[in-house]
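Re: weekly structure request thread

Next one in the queue (236 aa):
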Amino acid sequence: MGNEGVIAVEKALALLDCFKPGEESLSLTELAKISGYHKTTVYRLMNSLERMNYVIRKENGIYTLGPRLLYLGKLYEQSFHLASIVQPALHALATATHESATWYVIEDNQRLCLFRAEPSEGLFESRLPGTFLPLDNSAIGQVLRHWGLQESLFKDAPELPIFTSGVRDPHIAAFSLPVFGEGDKLLAALALTGPSSRLTLSQRESGTGKVMREAAFNLSLKLGANKTRIEKFYFP
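Done, posted below.
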């Protein structure tokens, strides 16, 4: 199998690297000169980058960097801030419940596993951070769809944490809660997953549910949510 796709990606990224302080706006000719690529190649790759919002082509034909790069930069920057807050909370949750604790966000109309902590022993569901899954009807999908995408999934306020079993895998169950940030907007779905034989609905009113609500409340508080409102939300 050829590596043309890899070469094309590398060339497109090299074109983005042509933009530097003092050279924020470049013409097709300038991009070809800096990169060393033929004008036809530059034009074709810049068209693809423009369609994906990585660059903007102005009416005079000059290219500038696009908003998608700002989004990725902010996401990269935020991930380091988030990691220092979220990862310890996930490890504490996994240790307390002996289940897998995960932080899911919405990305490209899917759910992205951004952070993960596994229990130190026993049978558990393993998933790598960076994994994409559909916004399905699992507890995690419901949280992201209802509080993130504003889908009206519940006629009345649901009992928290939301529980489902066997949605994606007949042997896996999940609890999930929304985590809020500034402006009380949804940041992520906090989830516990494990074998359906061990993780059951009855645990919602016991220690597992309480520990999850406390974790979601503390995370929301640290990430800028209004204390009074989220306290009423998690502990009505």
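The chain has a mean pLDDT of 90. Strands lie at 25-26, 55-57, 63-65, 100-107, 110-117, 132-133, 162-165, 172-180, 186-195.
Next request, please.
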